[in-house]
Amino acid sequence: MDYSVYDTADFVCNDSFVAWIQHGEQADFWKTVEEQYPEKRAAMSEARAIITAASSLPAFTLKDEVSAEIWNNIRKKPVTRWYRAAAAAAIFALATLWWLMPQQSHKKDFVYRQLLRKAKVEHPVEVVNEGKKPMAVSLPDGSSVLLQPGARLSYPACFSHGCHRKVFLSGAAFFEIYRDAKQPFVVYANEMIIDVLGTSFAVKAYEEDSLVELLVKTGRVAVSVQSTDQQVILTANQQAILTRSTLLVDVTSLQEHKPLAATLETYSFVFTDAPVDSVMKTIEQAYGVHITYDKALLADCRLTASLYDEPLYEKIRLICKALEASCIIEGNDIKISAKGCHQNVIEN
């Protein structure tokens, strides 16, 4: 994060900074920021005064456009620090009353932020899908996530090589988890906690929804609920539905309910003597990625492989290995360089 562009308003609207001022969280981190950006100490001090003035009010998060409009109005006037603090305190009070009103949209991501704070995740990496199509996300351990539009995902900066594999989700996503028996993978989705070793599943956990839904495609997961002793085990083709008002979980089979989230389409990744072009198109359509390769060079290449339970980038790795090709992955763009083949069947 580049704090050189931050002003007083930015610090006031930063959840982590507010948590430091109010609760002393991540103190070492913010002290380091003060040392690294001495030119921002005045803005941080001013923000501290504003937050302290409103410390007796509940925590909340303003929408970006609301926050920007409020602060633009304040900046238009040549005011003193005292006036800015008083104005900000009034804003906090107004926003608090608004937050308590019976509406849903303004509470977006509140539970998600609370989960992050409670877990004390320092310097989390956050991915937000602000587009209109699913976004493929590759996690440091080799797991992959197909993040639906409007969804966000956070995980610790230290995620693999002996670190805790835990992620925090707000919205809908499809997970393919890299198997590591020594290091379980945990998903926090509103009040639902999902423990896995290696499997694939879909989660629907929107902040405003009354339900949290989990659909297991392959493997086995353990589902528990925040603040309760409940735990249930799900296997392939089962789904769990958590009613958030009662914190009760109902487990059913897919034959009894419609598949979770129509936008989370399922594809068959079992290929039998399939043209490479067909394999590439299936992966592009399923994950929303773009694969670049020499179509003429690989026109005669065929693939026989079962990639049903592999994370996205493990699929790509196995395909490249079978083709004796090299691949470069940059976000949703994948470039494959191969030497071609001669009408042979390639097996992984």
From TrEMBL:
Using the record's annotation, list all stretches that form the FecR protein domain.
135-221
Write out the transmembrane intervals: 82-101
The residue range of the signal peptide is none
Segments forming domain Protein FecR C-terminal = 269-336
Statement: the UniProt record of this protein carries the keyword Transmembrane helix: yes
Entry's Pfam families? FecR, FecR_C
UniProt keyword terms in alphabetical order: Membrane, Transmembrane, Transmembrane helix
A molecular function (GO) term: sigma factor antagonist activity
Keyword Nucleotide-binding part of the UniProt annotation: no
Task: State the protein's name.
Answer: DUF4974 domain-containing protein
